[in-house]
Design goal:
This protein is α/β, with parallel strands linked by helices. Helices cover 44% and strands 13% of the residues. It has two domains: 231 residues, Periplasmic binding protein-like II (D-Maltodextrin-Binding Protein, domain 2), CATH 3.40.190; 224 residues, Periplasmic binding protein-like II (D-Maltodextrin-Binding Protein, domain 2). It has 21 helices and 14 strands.
Length: 525
């Protein structure tokens, strides 16, 4: 008995020692495994050079990360060497799954397109480490942005209270809205004013269709087109008081989550779009064409109106000038401009449990969320890839704009931001490429009609996320198919009640309950 008791004592003591070591390791990892070499502010970040392994997505516009001027310069500034494993976009998701399943993790997932479910699943299992304490202690720029925009932190905090992945932060409102562009030359040719109401919009579109504004003697104009079905619904929804909150067909009314898939307002919007479609005022291919098809139409100069975030129509359709107009006033007096959340591109950056220098890593990232660092990230090195104009704003060099490959590819040689999905900070001071004067003027016509706050998709625990996915998979497919059929006339509005019943029977009340709980716990002040 004494011998057995002794064995048990040794076993328990061993477990306590192991637990103590585990806790110590975790604590040290969060603070810094080698705190004596970390500088909590300024450069270099560490006195002795360290190396970190980054697994990253490489967009088609990007060159090899190890050759990027921004990262080469930043290595000299920080004393942190990055060993890049940058995987081409086409193979990235498959490789990402393999990396997450492997026993040998990189230190960081970068430009990683991590989903909310992946962040929660791999965070709660210990593959990604919590970031909130690191941010509070070592990331003053991110901390300041979280304080300025509380909805950012709310939208990236998991149900267990931890932050496992970081987004891009888009402060520039012009980068979060789809402007309603109209062909100014066609308006002037036909003696028309900018439309302000639904009826005036129909009148202008009808004139664009029938009165040959491009002057070629053919009825080949496309009065109105959009990139896809989502853009069509989202951009016109504000005229019926419909917004996309929490990443879904949701309005927040007096603190209550309201899905509008089955609402009378949505039915009225679809009836209006069906009218445009049936009368040839809306592009007949809007429900089927892809991005390349859409841009091809834009470049022909046959487009009367469309919603685009940037100045694409003026860039592509050289013969015509397009101007932005205010949101159309709907039949009930609604004049709202849909907008994207400030926290965009969820899951751009995560630190793994293999990382022995998490504090230095978060300091490495935080600089790019400062004004100075964000300019470096997007513009490169002053005197080499950009200069400051007379207003003190950064501007790309002539060599970048005149590059025969296109300036997006030229920029992608020295920074990873082209192609989207990077952990970055976009402001009015670092966005000349996407915020030229025409876009600024168009945005001014939207500023008075923006939502006070836009909530991003919530983070659910793994079980809830699986339940939401199970409901949404069938519901979203049926909703999208039915929406297209209501617009093109394949489904009569006599079938509206059947459509509503089908959506409700797919679990709409349960979905509302789940999103309401998420709103109450994650967003409600």
């Amino acid at each position: 008995m004494k011998k057995f008791t002794g064995i048990i004592f040794v076993f328990i003591l061993g477990m306590l020692v192991m637990t103590g070591c585990s806790e110590k390791t975790t604590e040290e990892q969060v603070n810094e495994s080698t705190p004596e070499i970390l500088n909590e502010e300024g450069f270099p970040i560490v006195d002795e050079e360290i190396s970190l392994k980054f697994f990253a997505r490489r967009s088609p516009q990007n060159g090899p990360y190890e050759n990027m001027l921004v990262f080469q310069e930043y290595e000299n500034m920080t004393n942190i060497k990055i060993e890049w494993d940058d995987v081409p976009q086409d193979n990235f998701d498959e490789r990402k799954s393999l990396e997450l399943a492997s026993g040998k993790l990189p230190d960081v997932f970068y430009k990683a397109s991590l989903s909310q479910l992946q962040a929660v699943e791999y965070g709660s299992s210990g593959i990604f480490i919590p970031l909130e304490d690191l941010i509070e202690k070592y990331a003053p720029n991110l901390t300041a942005l979280f304080e300025k925009y509380p909805e950012i932190k709310s939208s990236i905090t998991a149900p267990d209270g931890h932050i496992y992945a970081l987004p891009a932060i888009v402060e520039l409102e012009a980068a979060r809205t789809e402007k309603f562009w109209v062909n100014k030359d066609w308006l002037e040719t036909l003696g028309l004013e900018e439309p302000t109401t639904v009826d005036e919009l129909v009148e202008v579109l009808t004139a664009f269709k029938n009165e040959d504004p491009n002057g070629n003697g053919e009825q080949d104009e496309i009065p109105l087109t959009e990139r896809d079905l989502y853009s069509l619904i989202n951009t016109f929804g504000g005229s019926w008081g419909l917004l996309h909150q929490m990443g879904n067909t949701i309005n927040i009314e007096n603190g209550e989550v309201k899905f509008w898939k089955t609402s009378e307002r949505y039915k009225e919007l679809l009836q209006f779009l069906n009218k445009l479609y049936s009368e040839g005022l809306l592009d007949r291919e809007v429900l089927t064409h892809n991005q390349a098809d859409y841009m091809g139409k834009v470049s022909t100069g046959r487009i009367g109106m469309s919603h685009v975030q940037g100045d694409d129509l003026n860039d592509q359709a050289k013969d015509w000038e397009y101007i932005g107009i205010s949101p159309i006033i709907g039949p009930h007096g609604d004049q709202m401009q849909p907008s994207s959340p400030i926290a965009r591109d969820f899951g751009t950056f995560a630190i793994t449990s293999s990382n022995q220098h998490p504090a230095a890593t978060i300091r490495w990232l935080d600089y790019f969320f400062s004004e100075e660092g964000s300019i470096m990230f997007r513009y490169g090195i002053e005197g080499e890839t950009f200069y400051y104009d007379e207003d003190g704003l950064p501007e790309y060099s002539d060599e970048i704009y005149s590059d025969p490959r296109g300036y997006g590819v030229a920029i992608g040689d020295f920074t990873p931001y082209p192609g989207g999905g990077s952990p970055q900070y976009i402001t009015e001071y670092n966005a000349s490429g996407i915020n030229p004067p025409a876009v600024q003027e168009a945005q001014k016509k939207l500023d008075g009609y923006l939502p006070e706050v836009v909530y991003g998709p919530p983070l659910f625990d793994v079980d809830t996320a699986e339940e939401v996915d199970q409901i949404r998979q069938d519901m979203d497919a049926y909703y999208n198919e039915s929406t297209a059929q209501f617009i093109n006339g394949d489904m009569s509005f006599d079938k509206w009640d059947d459509y509503v019943s089908t959506i409700e029977n797919m679990g709409l009340s349960r979905l509302t309950e789940i999103y309401q709980e998420a709103y109450d716990t994650q967003y409600k002040n």
